[in-house]
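Anyone up for a design puzzle?
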């Protein structure tokens, strides 16, 4: 999961990352590429955004940074409560810290409302994941606490 757009009663996992074109500020105008329009509409409809992204090469994966670049010009994320949780393995040297620092920088620039109480580092090993879901009840509980804190920050 790279990102979740959430309303107070439900959540939707965004799965269109691979459909986004490379960001080009010259293309950040109407008519938008359909995948960009879909992303922006999902963010606009959400009460909050919960991000879960791995760290790659000391920062955000390029494809996810591309997604964030598309959120700046539309303004849909401005003032939107946002938090992130860790998706790094227990063996990751920084525990996702560099990716989270990058997220803070970009999201602050975009005007998002970062809910610090909901941002959490919860290291997850491959053994803790089954069928794409965190299986360990303790880890799921810690993730649920972060999500609840985000809801409270709305």
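Challenge accepted. My sequence:
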């Amino acid at each position: 999961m790279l990102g979740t757009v959430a309303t107070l009663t439900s959540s939707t996992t965004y799965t269109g990352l691979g459909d986004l074109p490379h960001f080009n500020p010259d293309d950040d105008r109407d008519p938008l590429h359909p995948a960009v329009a879909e992303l922006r509409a999902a963010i606009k409809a959400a009460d909050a955004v919960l991000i879960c992204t791995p760290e790659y090469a000391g920062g955000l994966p390029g494809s996810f940074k591309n997604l964030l670049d598309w959120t700046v010009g539309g303004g849909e994320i401005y003032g939107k409560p946002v938090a992130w949780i860790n998706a790094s393995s227990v063996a990751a040297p920084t525990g996702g810290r560099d990716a989270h620092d990058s997220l803070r920088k970009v999201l602050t620039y975009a005007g998002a409302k970062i809910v610090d109480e909901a941002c959490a580092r919860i290291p997850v090993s491959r053994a803790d994941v089954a069928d794409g879901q965190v299986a360990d009840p303790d880890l799921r509980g810690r993730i649920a606490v972060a999500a609840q804190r985000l809801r409270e920050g709305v």
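A detail worth pointing out: Residues 3-152 form a domain with the Rossmann fold fold (CATH 3.40.50.360).
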